């Protein structure tokens, strides 16, 4: 391996240390930040992610508010839980764990979250604020990627960045974030309709892959020395019959890249740290 690994787990731990201090300062003002989670169904992956969020809260002193509904919950039951959290003064921000069961209307659910309590930054009002360059909670994964690169001195100003994937949670908001005046990167947003993906990734200083296609980015597709960020996380069944998570970046990329944000241990822990940051920032505005 030649690439320097940019360790998201260690950076997230640093951020949690900083948040612990800010949470203590809030406590002195009589404010305890509260994060709510809404989990519908019993998908083991989603359960593990929600459990992780509550472990993180306990680590930094944020209060946890958990709401769980069965997989066959009606839209009305979900709407009622959101109305309850919107009205709860102890809840500074909350998330609805995605994906939701197919019979539920994800767009409606995201729109019912009070934009002021939108810890994930995925409400249309907050994504609109991002488009317009206004302040607001930022989506956690894009924010985590930018923060990780910043803390590892990866220059964005003037850099060319290929973002692969145009989803609403990562690719599209990431493109917006990277092209803000404060970041000033030049972004090419690639997607399934892109004709020559490798031509775009090869031309980039930084390649960020959030396509959900295991091994999509191979070593021949990058400029030697490029910075590569693996956002993919797909559950696959290995040759041993056991399930495991795999990223969008082929392992051989580590021989050609200058730096690599790996999966696991890269973007995932940063996503969790940014969720806590969004909640603390919201509580600091009280
Ligand atoms: N409402 C939301 N739903 C979902 C989001 C989200 O940001 N908001 N993102 C993903 C799931 N997710 C958080 O919810 C998440 C996924 C993975 C990780 C993580 O730390 N992964 C590890 C590897 C896997 C593991 O060891 O379990 C890593 O990258 O090191 C954190 C959060 C979809 N749903």
Automatic annotation (TrEMBL):
Lyase listed as a keyword: no
Gene3D superfamilies hit by this protein: Leucine Dehydrogenase, chain A, domain 1 (3.40.50.10860), NAD(P)-binding Rossmann-like Domain (3.40.50.720)
Start and end residues of each Tetrahydrofolate dehydrogenase/cyclohydrolase catalytic domain: 6-120
GO biological process: L-histidine biosynthetic process; methionine biosynthetic process; purine nucleotide biosynthetic process; tetrahydrofolate interconversion
Coiled coil: none
Record: residues binding NADP(+): 165-167, 233
Alphabetical list of InterPro entries matching this protein: Aminoacid_DH-like_N_sf, NAD(P)-bd_dom_sf, THF_DH/CycHdrlase, THF_DH/CycHdrlase_cat_dom, THF_DH/CycHdrlase_NAD-bd_dom
Keyword Hydrolase included in the entry's annotation: yes
UniProt GO MF annotations: methenyltetrahydrofolate cyclohydrolase activity; methylenetetrahydrofolate dehydrogenase (NADP+) activity
Ranges where the Tetrahydrofolate dehydrogenase/cyclohydrolase NAD(P)-binding domain occurs: 139-285
Protein purpose: Catalyzes the oxidation of 5,10-methylenetetrahydrofolate to 5,10-methenyltetrahydrofolate and then the hydrolysis of 5,10-methenyltetrahydrofolate to 10-formyltetrahydrofolate.
Assigned protein family: Belongs to the tetrahydrofolate dehydrogenase/cyclohydrolase family.
Protein's name according to its UniProt entry: Bifunctional protein FolD
Organism for this UniProt entry: Micromonospora violae
Gene: folD
């Amino acid at each position: 391996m030649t690439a320097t690994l940019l360790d998201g787990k260690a950076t997230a731990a640093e951020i949690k240390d900083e948040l612990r201090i800010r949470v203590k300062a809030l406590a002195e003002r009589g404010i305890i930040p509260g994060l709510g989670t809404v989990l519908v169904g019993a998908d083991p992956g989603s359960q593990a992610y929600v459990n992780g969020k509550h472990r993180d809260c306990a680590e930094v002193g944020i209060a946890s508010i958990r709401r769980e509904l069965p997989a066959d919950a009606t839209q009305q039951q979900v709407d009622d839980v959101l109305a309850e959290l919107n009205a709860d003064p102890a809840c500074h921000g909350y998330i609805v764990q995605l994906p939701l069961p197919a019979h539920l209307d994800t767009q409606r659910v995201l729109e019912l979250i009070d934009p002021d309590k939108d810890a994930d930054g995925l409400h249309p009002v907050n994504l609109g604020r991002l488009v317009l360059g206004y302040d607001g909670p930022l989506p956690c994964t894009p924010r985590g990627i930018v923060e990780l690169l910043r803390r590892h001195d990866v220059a964005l100003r003037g850099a060319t960045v290929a973002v692969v994937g145009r989803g609403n949670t990562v690719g599209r908001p990431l493109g917006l974030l990277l092209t803000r005046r404060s970041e000033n990167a030049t972004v090419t947003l690639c997607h399934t309709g892109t004709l020559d993906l490798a031509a775009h990734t090869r031309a980039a200083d930084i390649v960020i892959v959030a396509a959900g296609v295991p091994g999509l980015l191979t070593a021949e597709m990058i400029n030697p020395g490029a910075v590569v960020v693996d956002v993919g996380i797909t559950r696959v069944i290995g040759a041993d019959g056991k399930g495991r998570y795999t990223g969008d970046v082929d392992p051989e990329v580590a021989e050609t890249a200058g730096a690599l944000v790996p999966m696991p241990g890269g973007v995932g822990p940063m996503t969790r740290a940014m969720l806590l940051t969004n909640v603390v920032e919201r509580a600091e505005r009280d």
